[in-house]
Amino acid sequence: MRIQSCLLSAGAALFAVSAWAHHGWSSYDAGKVVEIEAPLVEVQYRNPHAEVAVDYQGARWHVILAPISRMESRGLPAGALSTGKVVTIEGYPRSDGTHELRAERITVDSKTVELR
Predict the structure, then answer these.
(1) Which residues constitute the signal peptide according to the record (predicted)?
(2) How far is 99 from 22, CA to CA, in rounded Å?
């Protein structure tokens, strides 16, 4: 019984750590909104979050989107995002200056999709 209790506790701790790491949005500056309009140079439509990259002001920005199930339910299927397509992305930049953005919304083909 004691071993089972220890294993259960260890499993719960691992789950908590992985959940915290996955949802670590605190590294983004929610007080600063960045808007980027640029063509997509990379598209990765996969879980846990879709990601795209754009070249903006001389740097390659990596953009974290929403889980694909959320994007699809809000009208943004995989085929809507393709390399070369010009999009407008609004989101929060990383606090450490890394060229990465947590997207709050994306406009594709004149359609704005809320991601959070």
Answers:
(1) 1-21
(2) 19
